[in-house]
């Protein structure tokens, strides 16, 4: 059964819905250089993540201008884990991990396996996503799940499958790619970052049904 992260949360009600549905992790987006209805300021991010109960991983998703700023954001917001998008060197990741003492997830384009392999040794997990030219995820576009599964089998880091997943497709994605976890944002929304609570519940339930389909 794949673990589930519900990402791009902006409201208390949506956060509670994700937790009540049984999500293993929740994500709040702050300081990204792209226009996103899911972005909140650091103060709001800190308030949202402070409400996450034990045994659910509170994740800060960000694309800061430097490794030093990433560290500052972790100290300001206080997440359990940090998910970084953008171009990072292995040395920068080592610095962030050492300074924050947090697990660091790195988003990589699913069509760039060499990049995933380069970062495999320094990441706590790799998020395989469909990214734009800036390296940001959240495009809502799917990618080749079979290729993602082949890549995951070669990596030592846990792989989080992201990119265009919905409640209707996640079971098949898990069956094909066999990831450690799945990550969804736009796939469980009404519009503009507002979550569909029914879709969240279905997504979490369906992510655990891959054995029935195998």
From TrEMBL:
<keyword id="KW-0028">Amino-acid biosynthesis</keyword>
<keyword id="KW-0057">Aromatic amino acid biosynthesis</keyword>
<feature type="domain" description="N-(5'phosphoribosyl) anthranilate isomerase (PRAI)">
    <location>
        <begin position="4"/>
        <end position="205"/>
    </location>
</feature>
<dbReference type="Pfam" id="PF00697">
    <property type="entry name" value="PRAI"/>
</dbReference>
<protein>
    <recommendedName>
        <fullName>N-(5'-phosphoribosyl)anthranilate isomerase</fullName>
        <ecNumber>5.3.1.24</ecNumber>
    </recommendedName>
</protein>
<comment type="similarity">
    <text>Belongs to the TrpF family.</text>
</comment>
<dbReference type="InterPro" id="IPR013785">
    <property type="entry name" value="Aldolase_TIM"/>
</dbReference>
<dbReference type="InterPro" id="IPR044643">
    <property type="entry name" value="TrpF_fam"/>
</dbReference>
<comment type="pathway">
    <text>Amino-acid biosynthesis; L-tryptophan biosynthesis; L-tryptophan from chorismate: step 3/5.</text>
</comment>
<dbReference type="GO" id="GO:0000162">
    <property type="term" value="P:L-tryptophan biosynthetic process"/>
</dbReference>
<dbReference type="InterPro" id="IPR011060">
    <property type="entry name" value="RibuloseP-bd_barrel"/>
</dbReference>
<dbReference type="InterPro" id="IPR001240">
    <property type="entry name" value="PRAI_dom"/>
</dbReference>
<keyword id="KW-0413">Isomerase</keyword>
<dbReference type="GO" id="GO:0004640">
    <property type="term" value="F:phosphoribosylanthranilate isomerase activity"/>
</dbReference>
<keyword id="KW-0822">Tryptophan biosynthesis</keyword>
């Amino acid at each position: 059964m794949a673990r589930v992260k519900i990402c791009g949360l902006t409201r208390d009600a949506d956060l509670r819905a994700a937790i009540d549905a049984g999500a293993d992790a929740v994500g709040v987006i702050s300081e990204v250089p792209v226009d996103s209805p899911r972005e909140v300021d650091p103060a709001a991010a800190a308030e949202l993540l402070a409400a996450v109960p034990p045994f659910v991983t509170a994740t800060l998703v960000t694309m800061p201008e430097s490794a030093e700023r990433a560290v500052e954001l972790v100290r300001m917001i206080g997440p359990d884990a940090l998910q970084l998008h953008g171009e990072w060197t292995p040395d920068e990741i080592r610095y962030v991990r050492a300074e924050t003492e947090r697990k660091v997830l790195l988003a990589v384009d699913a069509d760039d396996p060499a990049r995933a392999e380069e970062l495999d040794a320094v990441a706590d997990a790799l998020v395989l996503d469909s990214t734009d030219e800036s390296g940001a995820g959240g495009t809502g576009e799917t990618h080749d799940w079979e290729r993602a599964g082949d890549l995951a089998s070669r990596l030592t880091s846990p792989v989080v499958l992201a990119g265009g997943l919905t409640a209707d497709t996640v079971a098949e994605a898990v069956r094909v790619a066999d990831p450690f976890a799945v990550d969804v944002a736009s796939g469980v929304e009404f519009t503009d970052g507002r979550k569909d609570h029914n879709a969240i519940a279905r997504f979490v339930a369906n992510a655990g049904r891959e054995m029935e389909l195998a």
